[in-house]
Amino acid sequence: MNPDQPKKKPPWLRKRLPSGPGYENVKRLLQKGCLHTVCEEAHCPNLWECFSHNTATFMILGDTCTRNCRFCAVTHGAPLPPDPEEPWRVAEAARELGLRHVVVTSVTRDDLPDGGAGHFARTVGALKERITGVTVEVLIPDFEGREVDLGTVLDAGPHVLNHNVETVERLYPRVRPEAGYARSLELLQRVGELSGGKIPAKSGIMLGLGETAPELRAALSDLRASGCTMLTLGQYLQPSRRHLPVERYIPPEEFDRWREEALEMGFERVASGPFVRSSYHAAELYNPNSLKEILPELEREPQIG
Fold first, then answer.
1. Pair 261, 233: CB distance under 8 Å
2. 172-184: per-residue pLDDT in tens?
3. How many Å apart are CA 248 and CA 216, to the nearest integer?
4. Which site among 57, 135, 169, 216 is 20 to 30 Å from 22 CA-CA?
5. Is 112 helix (H, G, I), strand (E, B) or coil?
């Protein structure tokens, strides 16, 4: 086989493509509000499903990232200045969609003095003001390790603080050359310290980039030691030929075993499966009582515990 040819996807990675009025409604609202989603920008395999079910993960601070991680499909380059009205447009779109749990992420903005932390805080505030009883989950960059910027986001009172380590320590120079494994773990540890344990820390890892079982086990142990209590494990999928190739497709039963092991290690809530992403069924992971709301037409429900 030509090494440049992408590996053929196994049967468990075939996915139906729901559509209909929900999908079109989400597209319309995003276009009306000039908003971005990580679903679209990162080529998420769950885009059709989530949009069809009237939900999306908002991506603030534009659609251009200042970093160039080798796994990520988001455009990199020189971004535009932040739009001061964006937080309110996000809140209005979330209200129109009827969202009760809103996930907000961003591109990395190393060009900004605060890395975009203030913009995150304003978005959290706008959501709380516009939607009574909303819960907000933020998926943030590392802010280059600045504690003050993490504090700015936490002071806004998100209900979950998510920051993905993405892969095991050995693979960082290859997968995330502009990030730091230790820096990400330190950020997660500070979440508990700065919030007095009131805001849970969440993180996620992609499988299939060449990690070994002992390395993954060590990463999970490091996350638990940092105070992380919520975890997502999903299959890495190559966005294009320019990105890192998939080294291995992980079968669903192996994801199930990792979920059980993570729970035994002390993680309180774990979503593990080939299609799991940081924000996939985030509401169900945050509130296990809503598990019954997972739609029955899913080909394979995420394993959550």
1. no
2. 999 998 899 999 9
3. 14
4. 135
5. coil
